[in-house]
Amino acid sequence: MAGYVFGLVLHPTRDVSEVVEMIASWAARHGKTLAVRVEDRHRVPSSVEAVAAAELAARCDALISIGGDGTMLGALRMAVRDPKPVLGVHLGRVGFLVEVQPPDLPRALERLVAHDFTVESHACLACDVCGDDVVAFNDIALVRQPGAGFVTATLAVDGQQYGYYRCDALVVSTPTGSTAYSYAAGGPLISPATEALVVTPSAPMAGISRSVLLSPHESVHLELRPDSAPVAVEMDGLLIREAATGGSVHVRYVRDAGQVVRLDPRRYQERNQLKLSLLDLPLLPDQLRELLPDGLREQLNRRELPPPR
């Protein structure tokens, strides 16, 4: 592949054809090459080259994630051994990682090729899960199976035993992941500028009952106890083990494992601050609409009215 190459990472189920066509048209006009995983070949135009998933990041100058935060996390994991800038195109709902809306894509692609952007560095968790190596940019979680008892595990930090957990789920997260499962389990929101990892139990029944915030230099070791129920293991929300009955999870913090493209860091930060404030409002979308100024609410209502027949 000659010249500047964009790798497309597609949401697994959503219709991304409109955005892909937009990128393909732009690439054809500017003489740029597009690539996609072999598994997604049927979802893109014939002009897009198919590449083995394990080789996509290495063959490309940048990745374009089309979807929400989950798709973005997948793109970052794909490039973890050879980090490349990842541009997020927003097709999701809340979206804390993605920045670009589809109408803004042409200008974003021009800036990407011109290197007119900043890179937001992201850490990951390098995890040994019962002997298997996995990488998580948000979190790794041990989750109980409904009706099967509780997750019971011991905690060791740098080899020093600290106590045990008996809970519904046990989540180890990065600062980026602190807004996800860890937050839902009652964990703290951690600034992305902070280097740390946090261990949070969900619905603790006994043992350690609060979040534990650790230095990036410390390693976490969770060992399932013999009296633990079978647990599922999730990595960034993806199921990687369905019913583990023994073994351990060892977690290390790795700096600068991912590169997220930021075109307007200040605007992105302001938008995320608004999203975080909405997380604590127990309101439905229609209720939130009532909080808008009258003029803006009426404008939105008119925009959603069906056209006259």
UniProtKB/TrEMBL annotation:
Cofactor(s) required for function per UniProt: a divalent metal cation
Keywords: ATP-binding, Cytoplasm, Kinase, NAD, NADP, Nucleotide-binding, Transferase
GO molecular function, one term: metal ion binding
Main subcellular location: cytoplasm
UniProt subcellular location: Cytoplasm
Chemical reaction(s) catalysed: NAD(+) + ATP = ADP + NADP(+) + H(+)
Protein name: NAD kinase
Organism: Micromonospora humi
